[in-house]
Every structure is written in structure tokens, then in C-alpha cells.
Amino acid sequence: MKNSSSKTDVRYECIRILREIDEKEIFAQELISEKCSQADWFPRDKNLLTELVYGVIRHRLSLDTLISFFSKIPLNKIEPWVLYALRLGIYQIVYLDKIPASAAINTSVELVKKLVRRTDAVRFTNAILRSIERGIQNKSADEPDVTDRQKALHRRGNTWCTFQHSILPDPDKNPSAYMAANYSHPEWLIKRWLSRYGKEKTIEICRINNLPPKVFLRINHRKISPQEFIELLEKNGINSYAVDNAVVVDNITVSEIPGFSEGLFFVQDISAMKVAQFLKVEKSDTVLDMCAAPGGKTTHITELLRDTGKVCALDISLKRLQSVQENCQRMGVQNVFIVCGDASDERVPFHVKFDRVLIDAPCSNTGVLSRRVEARWRLKEEDMNKLADLQSSILKTGAAMLKPGGYLVYSTCSIEPEENQDIIKKSLSADSQFYLDAEEYYLPEMKGGDGGYMARLLMRKI
Question: Can you say how many angstroms the Cα of residue 405 is from the centroid of all Cα atoms in its chain?
């Protein structure tokens, strides 16, 4: 029998996870999945935990902007547990509608009592949260006039939370700082996008990044048809619809979707599904999937091959390769060979060449910030050159593994030219054996679909 956890229990796990994510650089999804598999909670409790963890991470800079405005103590001087409790409380007060402000405040105060056990910390937490609650003018306001922009924090869609005071930087004097605080993105990233896409497109990208992403399922045609799967979901009370050979479901914990353990589907964004198709595999091809974990594109390639040929899944992480093996077994895939190796090392352990090579390169993740919620805070501007060097090395290794007349597809989930078009141009200028057959570049979309890039190179026949 499942137990409904108390409000404090869910929130305690939330701030524990938030702190562990920051201190150990673990991914939120891993910790949430681990907790949800262990806790005997109702789905609503698991969904609440996911909403709170992801929401606080996405809106961290906006939350910290509010704390800085209402607190006399600098952020870096606030006790860590208190800071996490404040972020959690403010997120619920400002961004959520179904949780009363009083409940959000009381549970955060109780957490500080439990974790810090100092009267001054409890009073400070209570005072800041109540000041913010009193400072709100309208939690569901329309887009503010030009004169009131510093008083309005964007929530979602066309709704804003307005305050009695100017809480944000001046948008006219410092537009990048204003947008960074309002839409909770690093300012250096905002500046890059403003120079490349302009104000309106940058705002759209930021808004998309702050929304929960749509859950796309790639159906395993070996076992079930999309229509049969939709009917199965309907029987289990789950709303869904078909889009471009995928099934979209309401925001739901994957473990609650029937057919996961049986391998009826793979959770994969619709943009990521394009990559294996872009490879143009033919029956009985040999394919090298570099940087293969966790196996989404590997298993998709095998399906496109109709389970003929061979696919070699290469990844540098033995731990992550275990997920490839598990997913292959779950999806009923048999023609995959798993190899642990460094894709950037030209001495990769292969004595054969392949008909097709796929390089889904490690990248900045700027096209998938709605999914990889930690990425915006972990990425530094100086990382861009390091990533480009790594990507160039992997592309060089992959090119050496391709048969003449074969296709190589290079893809990322980044929207930065240094990781995409610039890498391909540099490679083509250095190696006349290849030419660009096709490329696609796409930004995140409000209707669903991550941002990214893919290029298909053809190796000339000798």
C-alpha cells in the first residue's frame, strides 16, 4: 500500500536533493529517480518532488534576485540550508498556484528548524518569506507597461508576478542583466543570444527553457504500433497523442507509464529522433555509434536496420554503458556490440571501418536547457573553446573509422555555432575526402522539440 508523504517530507527530500546536486554535481534526474523508486509515495508526491526540484533549479537566479532584494545578508553569507529553504519557499509563493503561501512559508520554516536548529535562522527565514509575500502586488498580472518592467517577474505564458518595488535591474541601462534576472539564465549566455538572435527570439528561448519539457516516446515497433500504444495508455487513464511517429504524454513520471520495463517505448525528444534517420542506414550496414550512452540513438538505429547488420556502441564511461546494455535488453535489441573507449583518441580499438558513423558529441547542452536543468549553471563561457577542441578530436577519430562512400553524421544538442557549423567547416577545410551532404539547425520550439544541430558528411569513393 502506498503512503502519502507529509508536505515537509517531500520538501525535505527536495532541498536535500538540491544541495547534493550543487555540491556533488549530480544530475537532478538521477537523484529524483532514485528517491521515487525507494519511497512508497503516491504519484502526486513524486510529481510534486519533480516539480519543486526542477522549478527551483530553473528559476534559481530569479529566486536569488528576490532574496538579495529583501535580505540585508549577502547570498554568500546565508547558511546553505537556509538558502535552499528560502529558494524552495519563494518558488512556491511566486511560481505555483495550488500551494497557499502560508503553507509554503510554514514548511520552509519547519525545514530550517529541523536542519539548522537555530532560532535566528528560523526567524530570518520566516521574515524573508513573509516580506516577499507582502511585497507581491499581483501574482497573475498581464505583461507590464514599459515603466513597470522592473517590478514584474515573468512566471509562464502571459502571466507575471508584480511587486510593489523595483526588484530587477533597469532593462534600458542593462538589458542583459535584466533578462538574466527575469528569465533566470547566466548573463554571459544572454549576451551571446542577444547578439545572435535579437531580443524577441532570446526571450522566446529563455521562456521555453523555463517550461517543463514535453514527454515524447519513441514507440518500439518490434513490439507494438503507435495506435495500439495510445490505446494502452487510454486504458490506464493517461492522455496522449501522436506526433511524427512519436507519442506525446502528459507530464508524468516515466515509471508510471505502462510498458516501460517491457520495452514498448524509449523516452526520446522528437528532435533526437531525427538523428538516426538522418544517418540514412541501409539493410545490413555496419554502424559505429560514438558517445552512445544511454542508447537512445543506438536502439533507434537497430530498428531502422530492421535488426540486420551490426551496431557498435562506443562510450568512454563504463557506468553509462551499463545503461546502453540495459536499454538494449529492454527494447529487445540483439545486434549491438558494446565497447568502452575514448572517442577523442585516434587509437580507438577498431581494425575495421564502418558503413555509417554517428557522432552525437558531448556539448554545452544549450538546446536542451529545459531538460538538463543544471546545465545552465554548470556551463562557463570558457568551456566553449574546450568543448570545441574535444568535438573536433572526436570528429577526426570518427572520420578515420568510415568506409569510402559512407555517411558520417555529426550532431549536438547545442545551439552555439562554435560547436556546430564551425566544427564542420574546420573539418571540411582540413580533409578533402569529405563533403557536406546535408545539415539541419533548429532552435527549441514552444510546441515541443529541443534545439540542436546535425550535419551529414559523405566520404568520397576512391
Answer: 35
